[in-house]
Amino acid sequence: METLKARIRHVPDFPKPGILFYDITTLLNDPGAFRDTIAALGAPYGGAGIEQVVGIESRGFILGAAVAHQLGAGFVPIRKPGKLPWKRHREDYALEYGTDGLEIHDDAMRQGQRVLVVDDVLATGGTAKAAAALVRRVGGELVGLSFLIELQVLGGRGQLTGENVSAVLQY
Ligand code: AMP
Predict the structure, then answer these.
(1) Which of 134, 137, 153, 95 is nearest to 145 (CA)?
(2) Sign of dihedral through CA atoms 66, 67, 73, 75?
(3) Is 59 annotated as catalytic?
(4) Choice among 7, 59, 79, 88 that is catalytic
(5) Does ligand 1 have an atom closer than 6 angstroms to the CB of 59?
(6) pLDDT of residue 91
(7) CATH number of the domain at 47-170, please?
(8) Dist. CA 74–CA 52, nearest whole Å
(9) DSSP 19-43
(10) Where are the beta strands (DSSP E) in 42-109?
(11) Taking each helix axis from N to C terminus, what angle separates 31-42 and 59-71, rounded to the nearest 10 degrees?
(12) Which pick of 55, 70, 96, 128 has the fewest CB atoms within 10 Å?
């Protein structure tokens, strides 16, 4: 895991002052690190009968689609408002300043399908909590949430009590 950590670039003050951004482009372009990352994201759920992997826009698409392929599951996108063309559900959540939203297609999955949510970073947990609510809103059975990076000091896990949460790398 230290080799994966070494592939992640830390960019201070991006996208705004005071934020330390965890840039995974330097991991994605390393074939071995990319492969190991996908294997590690899917490993805790290998025998869990996952039928749909849900990826959160936009880095969750890159990781989630590859994890879905590895687990033999389908892939479902959760997107920023205004991007999905069909009937959809929306969940709003608080940001540091203001609110944001996420959307999922109404027919994204069949009732009771077993779902894994994938994203790159678990920070305050607002994004993941909204994603979990959307999965349930469309009838999915949420089996777990898998993150590449958990920023423990921000307490995102506390937003996800009762859920199965796993993280490949913790900071
Ligand atoms: P949060 O809702 O606070 O848990 O934020 C999680 C979402 O914001 C994820 O989709 C991440 O891609 C992104 N994110 C939050 N903090 C960072 C960070 N320090 N570096 C990179 N991405 C981040």
Answers:
(1) 134
(2) negative
(3) yes
(4) 59
(5) yes
(6) 98
(7) 3.40.50.2020
(8) 5
(9) -EEEE-HHHHTSHHHHHHHHHHHHG
(10) 52-56, 74-78, 88-94, 99-105
(11) 70
(12) 96
Count of other CB atoms within 10 angstroms of residue 4: 20
What predicted TM-score, i.e. pTM, was given to this entire model?
0.98
| Angle at the Cα of 85 from the Cα atoms of 114 and 88, rounded to 5 degrees | 50
Q: Where are the domains of the chain?
A: 47-170
- 96 SS3 class: coil
Task: Judge contact between 79 and 102, C-beta under 8 A.
Answer: yes
The predicted structure's pLDDT at residue 154: 95
Per-residue pLDDT of the chain (171 residues), as tens digits, is 889 999 999 999 999 999 999 999 999 999 999 999 999 999 999 999 999 999 999 999 999 999 999 999 999 999 999 999 999 999 999 886 788 999 999 999 999 999 999 999 999 999 999 999 999 999 999 999 999 999 999 999 999 999 999 999 999
Of 127, 147, 160, 169, the one to substitute when testing ligand 1's pocket (max ligand atoms within 8 A of C-beta) is: 127
The pLDDT, as a whole number, for residue 1 is 81
In 41-54, which positions are buried (b, 16+ CB within 10 angstroms) versus exposed (e)?
bbebbeeeebbbbb
Tell me, in angstroms, the distance from the centre of ligand 1 to residue 113's CA: 27
